[in-house]
Write a structure and sequence with these properties.
This is NIPSNAP domain-containing protein. By secondary structure, the protein is an alpha+beta fold. The protein has helices spanning 2-48, 61-65, 86-102, 134-144, 148-158, 199-209, 242-252, 258-265, and strands spanning 72-81, 108-118, 123-131, 161-171, 186-194, 219-227, 232-239, 269-279. The chain has an eight-stranded antiparallel barrel.
Length: 286
Amino acid sequence: MANRVLHSLGSGLNQARTRVRTQGLAVFSSRGLAASNHRHGEDSWFKSLFVRKVDPRKDAHSNLIAKKETSNLYKIQFHNVKPECLGAYNKICEDVLPSIHADKHYPCELVGTWNTWYGEQDQAVHLWRYDGGYPALTEVMSKLRQNKEFMEYRNERGKMLLSRKNQLLLEFSFWNEPIPRKGPNIYELRSYQLRPGTMIEWGNYWARAIGYRQGNSEAVGGFFSQIGQLYMVHHLWAYKDLQSREDTRNAAWQQEGWDECVYYTVPLIQHMESRIMIPMKSSPLQ
């Protein structure tokens, strides 16, 4: 009798152990599967930050976001001037650059010329437009080498500079064409270094967002680099003063959709810089 009871108890314990093991494995498996799915979801989300599905294209990105109506090419120049030479530098620029702008034999226009007020100090910024693209640029450069006044200006300018750089730009299709305007105004040049491969995405968002920033005619022009530092975007804005800049920018946040543009475009940026600039006397943008 006692043996039967012990045998029955032993069988029950074995069955209980079996059930515990089976249930434990089931729980472990379900948890492992859930954890695996969770990790897979995290991996997919993480990879999505870096891996983008790109539709096959048979055209350059610049052709998709640049203006089709014109063949304009832009050049932006950044000149870092010796502090003691800034006054003399501005004078020779005002003596020579407007004559090139006004000469019909040169297929180019001086869009604007400024001194940086806030940002990198003792800096001059010049923006040129070449009507006819690269052939116009080549023609202008060739003619300037034969221009004695310009070559003298260039030699004298070289003695006043610490460094200089330039970029060739195209204009975004959805921005205004920069045209002369009366002053007084201050100008803000906001420059963005984008992550490679994100220019189309940037353009898609800003094509909608620019509508939120045109109420006070503050949008002057938008450009992206073709030669020089690549994946660079420059937005040029005009304001009456620093307070109107503050008021205008704050008003944009009250418009539905502006916050979404900022939310989606900030992750595309590697570096950004803001310059507040004052027009030189010879600048068509005053």
